[in-house]
Amino acid sequence: MQFNGIELVDGDIIKKENGKLIVPNNPIIGCIEGDGIGVDITPAMKLVVDKSVEKAYLGKKKISWYPLFAGENAFKKFNTYLPEDTVNAIKHIRVAIKGPLTTPVGGGFRSINVMLRQVLDLYACIRPVRYYNGIPSPVRHPEKMNVVIFRENTEDVYAGIEWKADSKEANQIIEYFKNNFNVDIREKSALGIKPVSQFGSERLIKMAIEYAIENNRKSVTLMHKGNIQKFTEGAFKQWGYELAKKEFSKYTIAEDEIGQQSVENKVIINDRIADNMFQQILTRTDEYDIIATTNLNGDYFSDACAAQSGGLGMAPGANIGENEAVFEATHGTAPKYASLDKANPSSLILSAKMMLDHLNWQEAATMLEQGLERTIADKTTTYDLARQMEGAKELSCSKFAEAIVNNL
Ligand code: NAD
Predict the structure, then answer these.
(1) In testing the pocket of ligand 1, which one of 98, 114, 333 has its CB within 8 Å of the most ligand atoms?
(2) Mean pLDDT score across all residues of the chain
(3) Long-range pairs for 56-60: beta carbons < 8 A, 24 or more residues apart
(4) pLDDT tens, residue by residue, 129-152
């Protein structure tokens, strides 16, 4: 079998049976190198992952990396930024990791990343944010941050339903609203639609609650703007509480029921309005744990949390659907630093740690994370962190990866 003309030869396919991943010892994992600094950070990530797996399992397990085309390399070869075969390959092999991709300016679609999430229905964007010792941070107690953000990935204003100001469609809709709903929208306005469904909200919140239960976390916070957007954001919150009660009553308790029944190791379900949440994460950082939220809130909030604990260069991410998972660096292509062997590969390396967790290869995941932690604690880092750390030694991207390997 082949995709984009490349034969799937080495390794075995990861299967899924009864909702559980069946991972062979030599799984095929798709790899999108990425544009810009992708050429630097992706080989660094692969080196660290391969060595962690080799060391954790004494050579009994090994990843077979399968190259996938997307972004500029796909455009050069196939005249499209996201070939259908790349999507089909991910559907077939189930797990992939990607470097950052340039968003084509003025192209036919808004973002390859958003498109990939939508065509594969990768409905949950998961972003753990925690502090690693020694990382420069703008706050006094960055170590208090340890949250996992579950952001809905397919709906909300990201659904891409919007019309230009004064376009035929926008004007028609304005007219329709006026005639049928007695709703006045200012003439020649641009319009966007924010769909939020019960189905989309529940499956995301369910994943967050299951994660909290499985990982002994203390709370799940439903972050929303329901005081203003009552039927979209407000409904997201309501559906979340109802779902917790209906499906997880044995393991969860709503915050306003504390006192009426015993908490006893139960996961607390609470909610916070988005603007308050931005304050709370700064002032009461350690009170928050798992956060489930709609798409746009999640986008803003995960970058804000990352900034508080050391910046985007350190923040990993995963996009998970029913059948496929794509792990990705959360920063962009930083074109200024492309091919200079300078960029920080930590975000992609920590995304690979999430991937190893997803494969249930915890030993390798833990080894990799500790290797990275030690390397940073030794004050050996790439330029972006070194310039903010007193007494740090600056390493190139590839040398930083080698230093992590030496610290495994
Ligand atoms: P960016 O994240 O690429 O870069 C902003 C700045 O952050 C860089 O100039 C650099 O100083 C720093 N930076 C980012 N990653 C770094 C790393 N690993 N190591 C060291 N420094 C790093 O954001 P941008 O400039 O707004 O976007 C550039 C391109 O990337 C755009 O085309 C954008 O659409 C795309 N993008 C892609 C993704 C993705 O693929 N997930 C995410 C964001 C932006």
Answers:
(1) 333
(2) 94
(3) 56/361, 56/363, 56/364, 56/367, 57/25, 57/361, 57/363, 57/364, 60/25
(4) 999 888 888 999 999 999 999 999
Q: Rounded to the nearest 10 degrees, what angle do helices 362-377 and 397-406 cross at?
A: 110
290 Cα to the center of ligand 1, angstroms:
26
| Ligand 1 contact via 397 beta carbon (within 6 Å) | no
Active site annotation includes 275: yes
pLDDT band at 78 (very low <50, low <70, confident <90, very high): very high
Instruction: Establish whether residue 271 lines the binding site of ligand 1, counting it when its CB lies within 6 angstroms of any ligand atom.
Output: no
242 is written with which tokens? 């109802």
299 is catalytic: yes
User: In whole angstroms, what is the distance from residue 267 CA to residue 213 CA?
Assistant: 7
> Of the residues 10, 166, 275, 286, which is catalytic?
275
Structure tokens at 327: 């792990």
Whether the full predicted model's pTM is greater than 0.85, yes or no, is: yes
